[in-house]
């Protein structure tokens, strides 16, 4: 970037700059520091580290990583403590305004004003946001009482406010399921959870623990077709949908309620990624990355929910440790040499990550591949196809869209790839 000498003198150089201090950003920072990067900086727009975990006061976190059950704040605190122990600089209350493909970053904060950085490597760890009502095109009035499930969670768990007393939840994502239980425990009546698809998009354990344990009905293949109320929500109308997801006349149900919570999907926060002209995936809404989590722009890495929406924070941390180590090796001049192959979505598979895989000239390491099943598949097999040749497979009793599927490609498999496209597919 062309800057005047006066502005150039205000630019701070950092070896690795991380955007976001949620679970992904903290894990990446820890890994980068432990890999030998001393000149390291984390920028976080919130006033506190921890990201969304701060408001997730339910347990169920950490079973894979720590082998014990933690609440969200407890999980986050372990990383916060480690970040502080390692002396990693984190600037909270700092909003990143822009990133360009040359790794020039502009940020702003109340105490330091405008800040400019040049980075040897950047790790994008901005997380995701909820899909708003405007994206649903649901007819009805624009009355009070319609919230995203995450907003309601913040009100109840961090600020001590109850959104309402009689509630309907649209969508069966994990946040919506968890809020069905939370609202019930706080004294509200949750009338129904309504899901457009013929299957839930949440973890099975949350369906059991948050709906079935509290006798909250789950209406699959249903959606809200009308929102009623002048100043405050007074009711919603729900109808069954057909195979084309269109309401079926005569199946309407009316619920008198004062609150509608929306749990209708998460969207990676990729505005900054796009500013850097990083190649994006239409399937994950995140960056296209290789197996080191490097994007199409050299020296820019992505991890966590900004890359693809995960179901467990343990997986976010594991992925982000890998991104932090890879960014450290990049600034240390450790080049990866080999040929790339493309990983493609096949039948029943949606959003394979990584999308590119390096077949190295030297020794290979095991590579984890993650994706979402496109539907519910029972007694199915994931096949990894190198052209017409099967090179790996994974059999499982059930695959569902609510749970991330994963498989590992072993070093000998990677070294034996032909160099063409590799397809991941599900067969029953």
Task: Explain this structure.
The protein is an alpha/beta fold. It has three domains: 1-130 and 265-336, FAD/NAD(P)-binding domain; 132-264, 3-Layer(bba) Sandwich (FAD/NAD(P)-binding domain), CATH 3.50.50; 338-428, no CATH class. 21% of the residues lie in helices and 33% in strands. It contains nine helices and 25 strands. The protein has helices at 5-8, 23-34, 72-85, 149-159, 174-185, 204-211, 271-275, 313-331, 411-415, and strands at residues 11-19, 40-43, 89-91, 94-99, 104-109, 113-124, 128-130, 146-148, 166-170, 189-194, 218-219, 222-228, 235-240, 253-256, 259-262, 266-268, 300-302, 338-345, 349-353, 356-360, 367-373, 377-386, 389-399, 405-409, 422-427. Helix 2 (23-34) links the parallel strand 1 and strand 2. Helix 2 (23-34) packs parallel to helix 3 (72-85) and helix 5 packs parallel to helix 6. The radius of gyration is 23 Å and the shape is globular.
What attributes does this structure have?
single chain, alpha/beta, FAD/NAD(P)-binding domain, five-stranded parallel β-sheet, globular
Topology:
Elements: H1 5-8, E1 11-19, H2 23-34, E2 40-43, H3 72-85, E3 89-91, E4 94-99, E5 104-109, E6 113-124, E7 128-130, E8 146-148, H4 149-159, E9 166-170, H5 174-185, E10 189-194, H6 204-211, E11 218-219, E12 222-228, E13 235-240, E14 253-256, E15 259-262, E16 266-268, H7 271-275, E17 300-302, H8 313-331, E18 338-345, E19 349-353, E20 356-360, E21 367-373, E22 377-386, E23 389-399, E24 405-409, H9 411-415, E25 422-427
Parallel strand pairs: 1-2, 1-6, 2-3, 6-17, 8-15, 9-10, 9-15, 10-11, 18-25
Antiparallel strand pairs: 4-5, 5-6, 7-16, 12-13, 13-14, 18-20, 19-21, 21-24, 22-23, 22-25
